[in-house]
Amino acid sequence: MVFSGQFLKNSVAALLLVLPLISSAGSTEDSIHVQHDSAAVHAEAPAAHEAHEGHAAEPADEKSKINEHIAHHLQDSHEFVFFSDEQTGEHYGFPLPVILYDNGVKFFMSSAFNHGESVANVDGNYYKLFHNKIYKTDAAGDLKLDHHGHPTVAQAMDFSITKNVVALLFTALLMFVLFTGLAKTYKKGPNALPTGFARVLEPLVIYVRDEIARPNIGEEKYKKFMPYLLTVFFLIWTLNLLGLTPLGINVTGNIAVTVCLALFTFFITQFSANKEYWGHIFWMPGVPYVMRIVLAPIEVLGLFTKPFSLLIRLFANITAGHTVVMGLIAVIYVMKNQLTVGGSIGASMVLTLFISVIELLVAFLQAFIFTMLSSLFIGMAVQEHDHHHDHAHGHDDHHVEDPEIPVI
User: Are 43 and 121 in contact (CB under 8 A)?
Assistant: First the structure.
């Protein structure tokens, strides 16, 4: 394999230098222009309503704005809002398609909600956007909030093309284009060399094959699962990198996405498992019969704890990273009275650059861990188990009357 080390070094260096700076600029500007739409209001108690209406004290209001903005950044959205002007109330971005099922399919653009400030009238039905969820209401937009600030009206069945869905579709299209080009190179012959960006992808594909799939699944069966392992590795890694851009995309920090990825690993593992795997689950060989009865429910529980650990690990690490970055930027604006403009910008750049570089490592590390554990679980299900200890156990039982042979 011929690979340009200088090209890779230049690409990585450019990514490390440019991406954190772009993220810092976008996040800083976004933090100044906090949205004031009723869809993003945190109505946890009456005091929260007062804060939204401006009745709370100024320091508490500043903190609530920051908390609101961090929560808004981590959540999915029915529109792309790049930044908002707090003085004029203008929002700069573009709407996304809304698809609802309510006695039929309802299709309209999210601009009908006017950033959560208006009620959408669709074929005589009224819908209100609240906390990035769509509720069916009346013409006045009354959600009938309870004493906890939660709507008591029905929530519409939502199949909308949200911001996270757009990111997933873009990532899928990008991967299709890039890997189609790499596949065409291999069709030319075993000695054909990839060109262009495919030269960057090839060592990563070889890494997943030689360092993840082969050691964990085995030489005979790893090829069957390579398409899934490559897909999940590059999908998670690309989505993690998109989350570092100022677009405010947090796909892998969405619990629904991580649950879906973990379920794929779970079903592939269970449907690929051989009879020896199930035998070890329900009737563990090589242990006393009483212990087999005790171990069976524990092993069955382990079937579900493994994918659960996958989805929680990915979700928690990505969400924590985004929260830390946004929190450090927020510190600059909380302390803006104690810092000069230059000091504020400098501190913001340094802190965000430091955390963003770490986030670049975490983006790759989480994709690697998810793929590694997935291959490990699959390997445990498809590998052929050694029965040497089972036969040895049977021989021990046969010679139990011999006092010179210890029975373990």
Answer: no
From the centroid of its chain, how far is CA 326? 17
Q: 34: closest CA among 51, 21, 20, 47?
A: 51
The per-residue DSSP string of 258-286 comes to HHHHHHHHHHHHHHH--HHHHHHHHS-TT
Phi and psi torsions of 218, nearest 5°: 110, 155
DSSP 179: H
Q: Model's pTM, two decimal places?
A: 0.73
The two three-digit tokens of residue 264, written as one number = 């794929």
- Is 46:56 a contact under the CB 8 Å cutoff? no
DSSP string over 221-254 = THHHHHHHHHHHHHHHHHHHHHTTSTT---STTS
Half-sphere exposure of residue 183, counting CA atoms within 13 Å on the CB side? 7
Residue 176 tokens, joined: 């299709």
Q: Average pLDDT per run of 10 along the chain, which is 408 residues long?
A: 43 40 37 37 39 40 70 77 71 85 88 85 88 87 85 88 92 92 81 81 92 92 93 94 82 91 94 87 83 88 91 89 77 63 62 79 92 93 64 44 40
Alpha-carbon gap, residue 158 to 137, rounded angstroms: 15
Cα dihedral: 80, 176, 321, 313 (round 10): 120
Give the angle 281-287-290 at the CA atoms, nearest 5°. 85
Residue of 381, 368, 238 lying closest to 313 (CA atoms):
368
Contacts 24+ apart (CB under 8 A), 128-137: 129/39, 129/78, 130/38, 130/39, 130/41, 131/39, 131/40, 131/41, 131/42, 131/75, 132/39, 132/40, 132/75, 132/76, 132/77, 132/78, 133/158, 134/78, 134/98, 134/100, 134/158, 134/160, 136/102
